[in-house]
Amino acid sequence: MSNESAAAISAVRRDWVGEHREMYLNSGGAKGHIMDITAVGGRAFATHCLVKYIGRRSGRVFITPLCYADIGGEVVICASKGGADHHPDWYLNLRERETVEFQVATQAFRGTWREPAGAERDKVWAFMVDCHPFYASYQESTDRVLPLVMMRAQEAIPVFQASDATGTRQY
């Protein structure tokens, strides 16, 4: 996907993603966890989590809503960036840390993360595409392999608040 195409997708999504994030945070996760995203090729009951991370250059804290699936007790997210030719910032920042903080509905966790490889990745990818079909078209639009991140909860933490974020991410 060209940078121009990625910019066009970003412009359309920017307001929706920001509004979704605020709804999720302001409700403590009671709203925003399950959303109808059929308009963008998703499911009527698509699941979303929040991921909190620290900017590798800025040191600021960011919170990003992402589609997820649960497989084998791990929360799986995809670093798709709508099929852009470069990785999303949240993924690049996550790679700099050993742990991750994430929220699913009204529960937040600190945990570990990893990237599946080989046959496991193939299995997890097929599951993600089944849950969120648009990932297949995102993968077709770029030469990079869309990273999958599997997060495992280690300890419960307080749900995220809008005030936790010290930076605002442009989508």
Automatic annotation (TrEMBL):
<dbReference type="InterPro" id="IPR012349">
    <property type="entry name" value="Split_barrel_FMN-bd"/>
</dbReference>
<dbReference type="InterPro" id="IPR004378">
    <property type="entry name" value="F420H2_quin_Rdtase"/>
</dbReference>
<comment type="similarity">
    <text>Belongs to the F420H(2)-dependent quinone reductase family.</text>
</comment>
<dbReference type="Pfam" id="PF04075">
    <property type="entry name" value="F420H2_quin_red"/>
</dbReference>
<protein>
    <submittedName>
        <fullName>Nitroreductase/quinone reductase family protein</fullName>
    </submittedName>
</protein>
